[in-house]
Amino acid sequence: MKNKKRLLIYIFIILLCIGFIFIPKNNTKQDTSKPAETIVIDDPRPSIPDDPSVPEKEEVKPWDIYYKNETSLESVRKKYDNNEIIAELYIPDLIDVYLARATDNEYYLNHNLYRKKDIKGSEYMDYRVGLDSKQINLYGHNSSTFNIPFRKLEKFLDQEFFESHPYVIMTFDGEERAYEILSIKEISTDYEHMKVNPTSMVEHIDKMIDGAIFVRNLKYDENTRLLVMQTCSYAHKDNYYIITAIEIDKK
């Protein structure tokens, strides 16, 4: 009787082992070698309704909601004793800062607007460009230590923030320009954005948004003018974040 029970137990154990052997295993591994796909975001500005009987929603212009800084750039230049201050950069809920432009792209990496040595540097415009350039490049340090303006550009890595903050305003002497943010991209070796006077603007922008983290679905052509903001990335060594914005025609 005992031998029979042992035999039954052995048979049960053998069947159990066979069952484990033939249970299928999940051998699927996540492919981490491929970069995340670009997320395309619709233009927040309302489109014209198909039904003409439906009234079109009134569009809010970015320059209409811009907080007007009553301080003129001329008085700012006098305050800092610096005639290289060329513009004011404003991003709602994020940045309001004055920009300088030197005769090279090195000086304001380690000088403040008073033109004093400062490891935090200043936000500044590429020396190669002017107000009529096809593309205006802006630069500023990022920092894990100091709370400096371009550090805040990392907020655009959050999709909700990217979607809800589409506009950038640049104020020059007596002129305001509005831009709509097209994309944010992290780069390591692709410096397409440094071509401030591209032969083909469409081809140039196509390359600029290729591989971007977020892209807003905006139209552009050969007459499009760009604003590009660059700061360092702390996510990966020697990388940069590039935010590209398209100038909005006020007409």
Percentage beta strand: 15-25%
Largest β sheet strand count, sense and barrel closure = 10 strands, mixed
Low-confidence stretches: 16-35
Order of SSEs = HEHHEEEEHEEHEEE
Shape: globular
Which CATH class applies here?
Answer: Mainly Beta
By CATH, the architecture is named Beta Barrel
Mean pLDDT: 83
Number of H- or I-type helical stretches = 5
Distance between the termini: 100 Å
Give the helix/strand class: alpha+beta
> Looking at this structure, what is the CATH superfamily?
Sortase
Please state the CA-atom Rg, rounded to the nearest Å: 27 Å
Number of strands: 10
Helix content: 10-25%
Fold-level CATH name: Sortase, Chain: A
Number of domains: 1
Task: Give a brief description.
The protein is built from 5 helices and 10 strands, in the order αβααββββαββαβββ.
Descriptive account of the structure:
The chain has one domain: Sortase, Chain: A (Beta Barrel), CATH 2.40.260. Strands 1, 2, 3, 4, 5, 6, 7, 8, 9 and 10 form a 10-stranded mixed beta sheet that branches. It has 5 helices and 10 strands. The protein is globular and about 45 Å long. Strand 2 and strand 3 form a beta hairpin. About 8% of the residues have low confidence. The protein has 251 residues and is α+β, with helices and mostly antiparallel strands.
